[in-house]
Amino acid sequence: MENVNERILGMLESFLFIAGDDGLTLGQLSVLLSLDAEMTAVTVERLRLNYEERLDSGITLRLYGGSYRLVTKAEYADDILRMLENPSKSSITQASLEVLAIIAYKQPVTRVEIDDLRGVKSDGPIQTLVAKGLIMEKGRLESSGRPILYGTTDLFLDRFGLESIEMLPPLIEVDDEPFGDADLFMTKFQEAFELMDEGGNND
Amino acid sequence: MENVNERILGMLESFLFIAGDDGLTLGQLSVLLSLDAEMTAVTVERLRLNYEERLDSGITLRLYGGSYRLVTKAEYADDILRMLENPSKSSITQASLEVLAIIAYKQPVTRVEIDDLRGVKSDGPIQTLVAKGLIMEKGRLESSGRPILYGTTDLFLDRFGLESIEMLPPLIEVDDEPFGDADLFMTKFQEAFELMDEGGNND
Amino acid sequence: MTYKVKLEAFEGPLDLLLHLINRLEIDIYDIPMSELTSQYIEHLHAMRVLELDELSEYLVLAATLIEIKSKMLLPVHEGDVLDHHNDYEMEDDPRDELVARLIEYKKYKEAANSLKESAEDRSVHFTKLPEDLSDYGEIAVTESDEKMNVFDLIGAFQKMLERKKLRSPLSASILRSELSVSEKMDDIMTKLEKIGGKCPFESLFEDGDVNDLVVTFLSLLELMKRLDITVIQEGNFGQMIVFAGQEDI
After folding, report:
1. Which Pfam families does its entry note (chains A, B) (predicted)?
2. Is C237 touching A (CB cutoff 8 A)?
């Protein structure tokens, strides 16, 4: 690992700098650096370690959805937010999150399966998630009506900071723990009451 | 010079990284880092020297027209140009994809509207997309200069597997809040007046 | 205890049911059906703001609950009962399906929460715009003749919206922190002194962005209030002139 050429590291950094938000895949980097995939991966990892080890570095390297990209270190987030005028976080509703979770873990999955699992219609959230570029059609089921099969997109992996869909944390089996999360329940309860107090439309 | 705080250096790097092409002036950096002008200049110089001294660094710092900017080192220019060469005629770039998305959803649309939406000039991608036969001129706008209106072609439908343009999934610009200059102006005004009402000094 | 809870606080009938199970501290593997059913129905009554469409989904589950409850009241045939202590522990407990659904739903509900955390972790890492090197070329994102799909377009569009945020607002906030009305007031007075005590109103607004213009305007108002300057307009629609000090009108 230690004998990664310095010039190659510099070249890699300059490529990633140029690519910015678009990032570069291992395949693209391998071609650009004229290295085989394995050596490319080693070089990328060396660069990442350099960033992590250097305390005077404000940036580091992340793999999101198959693309390597340079990002600022988490510790500077507050300072950067201060610099950005309107850092509106893209909000996502609880309903959309539930639908997204089901699609992420069960993909490819049809709308009917999602509806059944949630006990409510999920047309709205599905449409929103498609429009936000987080889910996409992954073909059709070969049965009557040929329903659409949904799956997640690379943008989903990016927005949720996942290297690949395999990196999703395993689903928690409820059997293992005592049922009933008192805290969660209290939160929900309080939310509901607060909403009532405001007396308005919760949308 | 040597006792520049590591965290401040990291913060400086993260700011310059985010600022990108626009860069940041000494005055802006001084405010952001909460340092006086002299100390800011010392810190910036320290960062520049770090880049220059480190052979494994692909980027460095330059002062252009009063703004400090991160740029790739000159020695990697040729490699970067190599990266930009289009490897294949039928491949498509992120920029082209963005322009294509705008045209597909907003057609017929002028180049100026596309530029406005993206915040960068789109001549290159438009030319490429015309050459690839994915978009075409769909008439002219009856206004001064009679700008060209662009729309998608049948080849576009074919390549993207669409029966018709109506089959595009709906797109809601969820996060694109209307926050034009007029709104900004009024907000500022109100803020300023509130501050003045509170008794004078707005600082 | 009666209370009204807005429907939107729940993501659907299963969510409401989970909520009740939690509140009543019920063992999910041994649900007292009559208690849960009555609580559920009581809740439905309390929820005033129901849209018809959603109401039907809640009612479907209510029907299911009542059905399970009634099944459990039916006498059990001798032959169906296995040698167990609990009367309800039959081959098919009528509650089994409901319990399985609840557990499955809860699993994804928790996954949704963990996704939310992932998104928050991700959101502290900022990235930069790609360098604009369009004069030289661009990096290809697809390999050769790959079939594209419309979802790539949506992704590109959303990414662009995200970038717009990164692109524009930067300068505004920094400028704002650099400007203040009191500083601008000094600026204006200095400028007036330098150019002989008067200048056209417009000339003070020649450069700067929205923030500057607002601050300049407010500074002028404040200066007028303090009688440090006088603004005189020569007739309707005439030029407005700013004078240092008090000027006879």
Report:
1. SMC_ScpB
2. no
B79–A132 CB contact, under 8 Å: no
Prediction pTM value: 0.72
CATH of domain C176-249: 1.10.10.580
Residue to test with chain B: of C165, C177, C210, C223, most B Cβ within 10 A: C210
Distance between CA B102 and CA B108 in Å, rounded? 10
> Would the CB atoms of A104 and C162 count as touching at under 8 Å?
no
User: Which residues are B63's β-sheet partners?
Assistant: B68
| 3 state SS of A137 | strand
Q: Do B83 and A20 touch (CB under 8 A)?
A: no
Q: Are A90 and B174 in contact (CB under 8 A)?
A: yes
The ipTM is 0.76
Q: What is the pLDDT of residues A120-171, one digit of tens each?
A: 999 999 999 998 899 999 989 988 889 999 999 999 999 999 999 999 988 8
Please check whether residue A33 is in contact with residue A40, taking contact to mean a CB–CB distance below 8 angstroms.
yes
Report the distance separating Cα A86 and Cα A81, nearest Å: 8
Chains near B, with 3+ CB pairs < 8 A?
Answer: A, C
- Cβ atoms of residues B119 and C167 within 8 Å: yes
CATH C-level class of A6-79: mainly alpha
Instruction: Indicate the angle between helix axes C13-23 and A182-198, nearest 10 degrees.
Output: 120
Domains of chain A: which residue ranges?
6-79, 94-194
CATH of domain A94-194: 1.10.10.10
b/e B165-186 (16+ beta carbons within 10 angstroms → b) = eeebbebeeeeeeeeeeeebee
3-state secondary structure of A141: coil
Q: Which of A33-37, C44-48, C132-136, C223-227 has the lowest mean pLDDT?
A: C132-136
Q: What CA–CA distance (Å, rounded) separates C213 from C210?
A: 5
Write out chain C residues lying below 8 Å of A77, CB-based.
123-126
- Cβ contacts from B onto C, under 8 A: 157
Helix (H) or strand (E) holding A150: strand A148-152
Chain A residues with CB under 8 Å of C6 CB are 192, 195-196, 202
What would the pLDDT profile of A19-68 be if each residue is shown by its tens digit?
898 899 999 899 889 999 999 999 999 999 999 999 999 999 999 988 99
Two tokens at A67? 């693309």
> Within a 10 A sphere around the Cβ of C78, how many other Cβ atoms?
6
Same CATH fold assignment for domains A6-79 and A94-194 = yes
The H or E element that residue A196 is part of is helix A182-198
What lies within 8 Å, CB to CB, of B15 at 6+ separation is A58, A79, A80, A83, B24, B29, B32, B33
Q: Can you tell me whether residue B168 is helix, strand or coil? A: coil
- Give CA torsion, residues C45, C48, C53, C59, to 10 deg: -10
